[in-house]
């Protein structure tokens, strides 16, 4: 279907199972993407002038290329990016510079706010094949260009592509773009990429928490000079489902303001206070985050429990009219993950 604005958006997901099987693989994949972005900087200005944009970044399954803008020159930019990826070579001077930057970024993790570190620990506990920052930093520090040059063909030797094309474009042209992507990636002479069979594609998984069981993970903040402490109460709800998603989103929208008002304004537990949804590989959860200088995490956790008890009673007391009013207030704000 054509729209009035002559623009198109293309997303290419490169699923590479070998990108996360070890700390060394994770940091090498990150550096591979950093180098790609660095090499493509030569196209950034011209693309911007032509009304185009692109981005390349690491994902949980590999990396993603995203392009958008006016469709008349989109295929020119797409081809330039694909050729750079297919003919990737390691430039030792750029490797050393970007590795140094990456090492500093990992070292600076210790200085992040406690609530950010707490969120990292939640991901580390829940996720399949998640690696501690300390192990990734150690692996990165030992990474040499010779090993990296051997790793990249290994990384790309198992690749599964997913392509999305949306905007002012006919279905036939969208199919043509996908065919061009596949041909460039897999059939270009001396291409590093090898296609992956469907049976080799692994779905990311999350630890399933038992019902009626509350688990705790406590650890000291990595920056001893930071006086703040933080708690994240994570409530796992369900796997991705359209109807359940709507119900959970509605609960989150209704509870968000009362949670902030009670925990932040009334009890003044911490400047950073929020209730929000969280999705880890399609497993949805509700989480409450509080960062505080006045109370310890154990006390904060108790107050979150008390808030939910109080809020539950208020939910049961809602009249049909009050509930309809809430729906009217939230109309148009519901998020459905397709």
From TrEMBL:
Residues 3-139 form the Peptidase M16 middle/third domain. Residues 252-326 form the Coenzyme PQQ synthesis protein F-like C-terminal lobe domain. Coiled coil: none annotated. It comes from the Eukaryota. The keyword Chaperone does not apply. Keywords: Hydrolase, Metal-binding, Metalloprotease, Protease, Zinc. GO terms for biological process: proteolysis. InterPro entries: Metalloenz_LuxS/M16, Peptidase_M16, Peptidase_M16_M, PqqF-like_C_4. Pfam families: Peptidase_M16_M (PF16187), PqqF-like_C_4 (PF22456). GO terms for molecular function: metal ion binding; metallopeptidase activity. Belongs to the peptidase M16 family. This is Insulin-degrading enzyme-like 1 peroxisomal. It comes from Zea mays.
């Amino acid at each position: 279907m054509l729209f009035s604005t002559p623009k198109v958006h293309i997303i290419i997901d490169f699923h590479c199972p070998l990108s996360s099987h070890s700390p060394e693989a994770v940091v090498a994949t990150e550096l591979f993407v950093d180098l790609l972005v660095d090499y493509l900087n030569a196209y950034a200005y011209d693309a911007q002038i032509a009304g185009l944009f692109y981005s390349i970044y690491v994902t949980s399954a590999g990396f993603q290329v995203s392009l958008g803008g006016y469709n008349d020159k989109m295929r020119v930019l797409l081809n330039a990016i694909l050729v750079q990826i297919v003919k990737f070579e390691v430039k030792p001077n750029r490797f050393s510079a970007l590795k140094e930057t990456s090492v500093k970024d990992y070292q600076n993790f210790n200085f992040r706010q406690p609530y950010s570190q707490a969120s990292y620990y939640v991901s580390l506990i829940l996720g399949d094949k998640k690696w501690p920052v300390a192990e990734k930093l150690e692996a990165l520090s030992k990474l040499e260009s010779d090993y990296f040059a051997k790793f990249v063909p290994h990384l790309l030797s198992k690749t599964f592509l997913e392509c999305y094309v949306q905007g002012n474009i006919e279905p036939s042209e969208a199919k043509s773009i996908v065919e061009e992507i596949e041909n460039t990636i897999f059939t270009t002479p001396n291409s590093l990429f090898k296609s992956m069979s469907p049976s080799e594609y692994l779905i990311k998984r999350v630890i399933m928490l038992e019902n009626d069981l509350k688990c705790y993970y406590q650890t000291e903040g990595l920056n001893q000079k930071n006086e703040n402490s933080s708690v994240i109460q994570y409530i796992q709800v369900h796997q991705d489902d359209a109807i359940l998603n709507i119900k959970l989103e509605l609960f989150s929208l209704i509870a968000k303001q009362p949670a902030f008002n009670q925990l932040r304004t009334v009890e003044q537990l911490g400047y950073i206070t929020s209730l929000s949804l969280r999705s880890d590989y399609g497993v949805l959860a509700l989480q409450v985050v509080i960062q505080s200088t006045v109370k310890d995490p154990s006390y904060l956790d108790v107050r979150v429990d008390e808030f939910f008890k109080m809020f539950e009673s208020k939910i049961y007391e809602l009249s049909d009219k009050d509930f309809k009013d809430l729906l009217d207030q939230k109309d148009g704000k519901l998020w459905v993950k397709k």
